[in-house]
Amino acid sequence: MSGRSRQKFGVLLVILLVTLSAYGCGGGGGGDATTTSLSGATPTAPTGSGGQGVIGATIRTTRDTPVEFTDAYEQTPVVVLFYVPGNADDRSVLESLNRLKSSFSGYTFLVYDYKLPDAYGDLSTLLTIGYPPELILIDKAGVIRRVWNGYVDEGSLNQGLVDLGRS
Predict the structure, then answer these.
(1) Is the full-model pTM beyond 0.85?
(2) What would the DSSP string read from start to end of 108-157?
(3) Are 146 and 158 within 8 A, CB to CB?
(4) Residue-range domain boundaries for the chain
(5) In the CATH scheme, what is the code of domain 33-166?
(6) pLDDT digits (tens, 9 = 90+) for 73-129
(7) Are residues 45 and 61 in contact, defined by beta-carbon separation less than 8 angstroms?
(8) What is the DSSP letter of 107?
(9) Alpha-carbon gap, residue 158 to 162, rounded angstroms
(10) Residue 83: which H helix or E strand, with range?
(11) What whole-number distance in Å separates Cα of residue 152 and Cα of residue 48?
(12) What is the pLDDT of residues 17-65, one digit of tens each?
């Protein structure tokens, strides 16, 4: 192979690698799940790991769904937090949520210790909870609008709650 052919081949290889890298990092044209809102939401939550796949969906409750959830669902905005006591991120999110509750009195706030499944029944399955802390915001119409996995700062949480009331 001549020097010029080798140079062209090298340039072609670099272009190919950059293209593949950009596609793998989100450059493939896919949408951002956190801003997707489905009109005519699906009747059941999609399955999968982590709650991002449920944004825009509604859920079908069962007899195993906690009564405090079913009483509030499609009546008020619902904020659901799954957490593990003792973890720093979980504690921080829980404290932020507790500070913000009084500013959103028309909302239903449900907090579940992930280690106590009898308290939340099948709700973790219906909402496809990935890893705690996981915070799910459901609008008054029963549509899942926002999901946070892991730490979320108080300012972002406050804005998410404000936006939830507008939907």
Answers:
(1) no
(2) EEEEEETT-HHHHTTHHHHTT--SSSEEEEE-TTS-EEEEEES---HHHH
(3) no
(4) 1-30, 33-166
(5) 3.40.30.10
(6) 999 999 999 999 999 999 999 999 999 999 999 999 999 999 999 999 999 999 999
(7) no
(8) S
(9) 6
(10) strand 78-83
(11) 22
(12) 444 444 444 443 333 332 222 333 333 333 334 556 789 999 999 999 9
Q: Which of 147, 161, 110 is nearest to 33 (CA)?
A: 147
How many whole angstroms separate alpha carbon 45 and alpha carbon 140? 17
Placement of tokens 């119409």 in the chain: 141
Both structure tokens of 17: 């690698």
Residue 146: what residue type? R
Query: Residue 71 in contact with residue 59, Cβ under 8 Å?
Result: no
- Who's near 36: CB < 8 A, 6+ residues apart? 55, 56
Helix (H, G, I), strand (E, B) or coil at 162: helix
Q: Are 161 and 76 in contact (CB under 8 A)?
A: no
